[in-house]
Prior knowledge:
The protein has 654 residues and is mainly beta. Helix content is 5%, strand content 32%. It is built from four helices and 42 strands. Strands 1-36-37-38-39 form a five-stranded mixed sheet, with no helix packed on it. Strands 2-42-41-40 form a four-stranded antiparallel sheet, with no helix packed on it. Strands 4-5-6-7 form a four-stranded antiparallel sheet, with no helix packed on it. The longest helix has 11 residues, at 487-497. The two termini are 40 Å apart. The relative contact order is 0.16. Residues 1-44 have low confidence and may be disordered.
Amino acid sequence: MTYPHRPTAAVIALLLAAGAPFAYAQESVVPAVAPAGAAAAAPGAGWTTFNGNLAAQKFSPETQITPANVDRLQQVWDLHTGDVSDGSGKLPESVWSATPLFVNDTVYLGTPFYRIFALEPDTGKVKWTYDSKSTLKALSQPALKNRGVAYWQAAAPAEGQPCEKRIYLGTMEGTLHAVDADTGKLCADFGQGGVLDLNQWNTINPEFPLSILQPPTVYKDTLFIGWAGKDWAASVNPPGSVFAVDARTGKLKWQFYSLPPESYDRTGTANVWASMSVDEQRGIVYLPISSPSPDFYGGNRKEPLPLATSVTALDAETGEVIWSRQLVHHDIWDYDTNSAPTLVDIEKDGQTIPALVQTSKQGMIYVLNRETGEPVFPLEERPVPASDVPGEVAAPTQPFADTPPPVVDAWPGIFRLADWLSLGYCSRTYAGLRHEGLFTPPSLQGTIAYPPTSGGVEWGGGAVDPVNQIFYVNSSSIAQIFQLVPRDEYQKMTAKRGDQPGYSEQKGVPYGLHLTNFMTSLGIPCWKPPYGFISAYDLKTGERLYKVPFGVTQKWGFYMPQSWGSPTIGAPALTASGLLFIGGSMDARVRALDAATGKALWQAQVQAPAVAMPAVYTYQGREYVVFVAGGNSILKEQVGDQVVAYALPGGKAN
């Protein structure tokens, strides 16, 4: 959410004064459940993957920091990497969403300048760094991005041998670097001298490099690698693919494609740009597959593409599809499946169900049997609005999940304060737009998308208590306007205005795209708050336990009422003591929430919005929580290069 105009002091005063009338009524909260026990944790200590473990649970067994003592949490170290850009100079803006890893008695980080930092876990002192010397250009993304690194070690590491433990770093160029986890030296037996070039397999419509911004998923001796590309620019792109390579050599084991070959001349992507999860017992890797190109018009790809915008389960050894569940038919909203599904066993109706929980941009939470893909709670195909755009044929129905309840409710209506301050702009604009609820297709007049591609649950997904089977997730309630612009008109418009934000070409189809946030000229949202929430769900019943505003909307140095919440990016980390540690909010604060209620118990100011999951670990008897504060322009124009760790004074639990 961006706010292009600064309001007057009087407007700010009105906004602050309006907090009480627009307070959100909190849903009833069930009594606090017992904290999860340490036995619930996956084997192994620390925070070993992007999502904490391969099941993407974001759960830590640590109990030293509790709801009773978290208010004593203090900063114990921080580090500034120097790898940051606000975009005002020669370098593109940096977007840093890296989850720190704690493994091998070391904290490991990747940076948006494609360097690795290895830090002492108790002091933050640098052990070593590695520089990939990658090109710092916006090759496929508008910003320099990094979501961290991955770790692998041999099943029985040979003492004294290099590269028996490795850190992997991807780049926007599409290269994957493997370095010794103890020294930071390249592992020469991997790829070519320690570097694997994914673009050797980028042979179909190679419009851009296969950027490795999300660290690979590591399972046994295999790396599963997805990639990111250039969205919204063209219809014909590289088809979505996932590569399984040998962790030691980089040799290709298998390759998976999400689109049929006969579609390659008209579409592409449906790639896996987010993280993946693995059922280690069953040997299944789960892929969150994104939408096909172009993102907002499908008149050139009317045939069924059943693996696009889906969660798909593959045999980890062969890459064969075990099952797939499409979450959006004929996606024309860019509703990418954008986070690793969370794996958890659910006790329901006297049975133990091996389940997964898949969050979504469209705000629905899908709970599926992870062996079969069948819904644990009912999914219903319902009629949705038809497209009125010449050449487009929208899907007549879409799957709806009412249990658990979606994180985004029905359209809240026009924000009266914003409408008044804009002299009726919000209500007049809304009256001229198309809006028939969720899945209203993009239109020539302009369509309200609520939630839009930037709403619902973003790439962080949620966290789960595997003992009590409670799922926690933060979400955004955002409205955008999707308008398709006929090609001739689009060319004239962009020729006159130049390269303007909000315009995307969608080359190869009859329409360009104009995407805007539904806001007044003062930058005030036209829809009613709250704008962000934290929610908890009992997975045994599908019941929502609570939904409360989360975060604080902050701009121009002012803070909006807490009842408004904030759009969020990132995800929480859950501890067995009953705490949710989370950044994600516009106000660049990190927080500890009471998992039983969603209430904030502790907070601290950091350099920029912490748009990444924190890592939680214990080292030499002391529990640490480490955040990366890197920022993301989707929230606001504030970037950072800070890594910051918190712990109790002296490491004591009381």
